[in-house]
Specification:
- By secondary structure, this protein is of the alpha+beta class.
- The chain has two domains: 202 residues, Multidrug efflux transporter AcrB transmembrane domain (Multidrug efflux transporter AcrB transmembrane fold), CATH 1.20.1640; 73 residues, Alpha-Beta Plaits (2-Layer Sandwich).
- Helices cover 62% and strands 7% of the residues.
- The chain has twelve helices and six strands.
- A four-stranded antiparallel beta sheet has the order 3-4-2-5.
- Helix 4 runs antiparallel to helix 5 and helix 9 runs antiparallel to helix 11.
- The C terminus is likely disordered.
């Protein structure tokens, strides 16, 4: 732990680091590949929408010794089409059948009671109309749209519109990946899934805002110096907050992983998968996008500004002049060589590179009265 703390301190001071922004094309390519895979999975397999969205009936059986396959066969035979059966704790089952009305529900209930050797009165049946599911879906889309608009407005005011645009792209990236994973693994989409998707938006923004805040502070009056380009300052911001982002993400992922792999997997509480999978994938994607997508995008947007282009020319010219004189430039080409967390030097004397020291004069002091000699 002490080594990790020392690493975090060295990253914050800029003594070590990784060139995230410099290798941004690699991260962009990887993100595009993952996003395309998610979109293809969504287009080919589609989402496994729950009863709450499609309408139908949900049957919760008491403890029974019957297998899942037998319950599925019995439900499909009674309903005439596919059924989804989940094994719950202590031998209970949850059976979902789409497109079922009240009369059909009673018939399926009696058939399940007979085949599973349980009392019909012990089977709880809940009917959901398709109109209610449609309302839930519309409300979810409205909430997502309002959230996006408010986030963009806030970030544009608190930071600038380029950061707001980068954060919005990162959010869309995270949501697309999460929805694509749901399509690929075939998990059921329920209101719990929607809650998880809306929740991860805040977590996804958390790390992004932390990096943006550091970037805003370090890039203040950036055009008044000739040590760093904007991309290098952005890279320092990522490295300075890297350990913090990793720590917060791991701490958030641990309980969610417990819900997903232990609660939903080992204990058979399938309903926990609805929200835990979206949280797990979304948290991981949010941490990734804040480091590899959002901040490099901001650097790309800012480097197109005339002021930042002029700054980059001055920085490179200063380093070229220093290299020609055999001196070392103060600013690095990669984050691995970033110096200590010094303040920017003013551009009043742009020709000065390195420590400002005056050469000692060999004849200094000659011919001056000393006070002892008269």
């Amino acid at each position: 732990m002490s080594k990790l703390g020392n690493l975090g301190a060295r990253l914050y001071r800029g003594e070590v680091g990784y060139d995230f922004v410099g290798k941004r094309m690699l991260w962009y390519g990887l993100s595009i590949l993952i996003t395309i895979t998610a979109i293809v999975g969504l287009a080919v397999r589609g989402l496994n929408m729950g009863i709450e969205f499609e309408g139908g009936a949900v049957f919760n059986t008491p403890k029974t010794s019957a297998s899942v396959s037998k319950a599925e066969e019995s439900a499909e035979k009674a309903a005439g089409h596919d059924a989804i059966v989940q094994k719950l704790g202590e031998g209970e089952m949850r059976i979902q059948i789409a497109g079922v009305d009240i009369e059909k529900s009673d018939q399926i209930k009696r058939a399940l009671a007979e085949d599973l050797d349980v009392k019909a009165g012990d089977i709880n049946a809940d009917l959901v109309g398709p109109s209610w599911g449609e309302q839930i879906a519309n409300k979810a889309w409205q909430g997502l749209a309002i959230f996006m608009v408010l986030v963009v407005i806030y970030l544009a005011i608190a930071f600038e519109w380029r950061m707001a645009l980068a954060a919005l792209i990162a959010l869309i990236h995270d949501i697309t990946i999460t929805v694509g994973v749901y399509a690929l693994v075939g998990f059921e989409v329920t209101p719990g899934t929607v809650i998880g998707l809306l929740t991860i938006l805040g977590y996804s923004l958390y790390d992004t805002v932390v990096v943006f805040d550091s970037l805003k502070e370090q890039s203040k009056d950036i055009t008044k110096q000739t040590r760093f380009t904007y991309s290098e300052v952005a890279n320092r911001s990522i490295n300075g907050t890297l350990v913090r982002s990793i720590n917060t993400t791991v701490v958030a992922l641990l309980p969610v992983a417990g819900l997903l792999f232990i609660g939903g997997g080992a204990l058979g509480a399938g309903m926990l998968n609805d929200i835990s999978l979206s949280l797990f994938v979304g948290l991981a994607a949010g941490a990734y996008s804040s480091i590899f997508i959002a901040t490099p995008l901001v650097a790309d947007f800012k480097e197109r500004e005339p002021q930042m282009k002029a700054l980059k020319k001055r920085v490179l010219a200063k380093r070229a002049a220093a290299a020609a004189k055999g001196e070392s430039a103060e600013a690095p080409h990669t984050a691995d060589d970033v110096p200590h967390d010094d303040e920017y030097e003013d551009d009043a004397a742009p020709a000065v590179v390195g420590p400002r020291s005056q050469p000692a004069s060999r004849g200094r002091g000659k011919g001056r009265p000393s006070g002892k000699r008269r």
